[in-house]
Amino acid sequence: MRLWGKGALHFATVLDDRQVIARYLGGNATDVYNYATIYDSLGLLHPALAKSPLIADMPVVTTEKSPAGWIGSIDRWFGHYVLSGWAVLPSKSRVADCVVVAVSSDDTAERAIAVNNEVEDRPDVVRVLGRTNLVRCGWRAHFSEPVPRKANEKVTAYAFDANAGDLYRVNGERAIPH
Questions:
Q1: What are residue 61's phi and psi, to 5 degrees?
Q2: Domains of the chain, first to last
Q3: Which H, E and C letters describe 104-157, residue by residue?
Q4: For 4, phi and psi rounded to 5 degrees?
Q5: For residue 160, is pLDDT > 80?
Q6: Looking at the predicted structure, is the pLDDT value of residue 148 above 70?
Q7: CA trace torsion 165, 57, 35, 45 (10° rounding)
Q8: Distance (Å, whole) CA 64 – CA 46
């Protein structure tokens, strides 16, 4: 769980993920963020904090080895959404440290909007992949409706390696329901 908090902290400069930071790194999320930005400015954080929400500005690893995961569903609740699926780090054969949700449209670049704030067991994935250490690879991310809405908006997801700072594209994408 510490790596989940570290993953969320990596995106704290471009996302509001205080809930995850407070829960998994402990302490006041604002204080944790303030100290992290100081350490980052001194070059003491590895990987450095994200400087942009654009996925194109982040290191994305492509792998043919095996999928990094799958987006399962998106549900809408009064202007808020819940995206769920499963994610692993294929090159490390372990559960993703956190999952980054990104949104894009026909005329906008893919940008990070949330990190997952729930994990869950996925025995179905364990059965298929044959690795019991991946049981906690399920995730859910809650996010608000993008404003302003764009035509043909879709969400994608990335498994994040908090120690290396690398993203792995999760299979699938979902249209954001209106």
A1: -95, 130
A2: 2-41 (no CATH), 55-175 (2.60.40)
A3: EECCEEEEEEEECCEEECCHHHHHHHCCHHHCCCEEEEEEECCCCCCCCCEEEE
A4: -65, -45
A5: yes
A6: no
A7: 40
A8: 26
